[in-house]
Amino acid sequence: MQRRNERTKWLLYTLLCVAADVIDTFLSNAVSNRVPYESLQPSDVDDLSDEEIQELAKKAPRLHSKHAVFKLTPGTIAKVAQDMDEDMSDASEANALNLIFAKTTIPVPRVRRVVEFKWERDYLIVLDYIKGPTLAEVWPTYSIWQKIGVAFTLRRYIRQLRGLKASPSTPPGPIGKDGPRMCESPIFGRVRSRRGPFASYAELTSFFNKGAQLAYDFWHKFPKDHPRRETRFDDSEALVLTHQDINPRNIIVGEDGTLWMIDWAWSGYYPPWFEYVAMNCQLENEEDRGSYYKHWDLLIPFVCGPCFEQEKWLLYTMGGLQFC
């Protein structure tokens, strides 16, 4: 009975996704998608030198007490790059945002500058300041139809991200020109969320399959003929650009109602189903912190597609990943 209910749920969400994509394709052809007007305007840091930006950042107030994000000027913010690798020649979050700005119509803060931030021994990313509340702040006031509208919009964004496929030679993880980078993702678990770097898609697959076998042997103690041992990490689709931290805190509702996606620090090239699992993981983390977004859990399979089997496989694997 449970298996039948799961298949019914998967079929329902799949049909909804297909119908939504058909409607979205029709509307996209009928209406011109343009980059938000704000992103095309000059910035108030355009004429500043790198040294002047560094000095401003040292004195700028933090927007968040727990994060290195500063209100640099009236029109910009600055955040310290979160790359975990040393001696990188670029900032992966800025690379992702520049790619999205160039290749999609997803509203994201435009990267204005990337400067070496000697104070923090890292790179400082200067971004447009987007006015408006976060979706987390206004979500309780939304009607069910407004929430469905948000889901449609986010699904459109995810479809565009999945159109940004990595080449066969591109390593998984953050985008950079210096080769493979350390990956941070809720997919790897709460205890050790940073793994890699992985030189190839095959290496990422091998990492997870090894963790699965360890979990089956020592955590679940499955017999050798258990059917679960025949399942493998799903690498059937190409790596695509993935946000990995989509939650109401990281979406700003602009003054005209535009949904802006922010905080791409964990973004990179991963299997498409990572977005679904990451959204669920981040929802659990939000609830652990005391935040509750009614109906958000019901929208995730629609936004990302119902990746139920991949998530189930990963849950069986978690016990072994901590030993990899």
Automatic annotation (TrEMBL):
Pfam families: APH. Keywords: Kinase, Signal, Transferase. Residues 99-277 form the Aminoglycoside phosphotransferase domain. InterPro entries: AGP_Transferase (IPR051678), Aminoglycoside_PTrfase (IPR002575), Kinase-like_dom_sf (IPR011009). GO terms for molecular function: kinase activity. Residues 1-20 form the signal peptide. This is Kinase-like domain-containing protein. It comes from Lentinula raphanica. The lineage of its organism: Eukaryota, Fungi, Dikarya, Basidiomycota, Agaricomycotina.
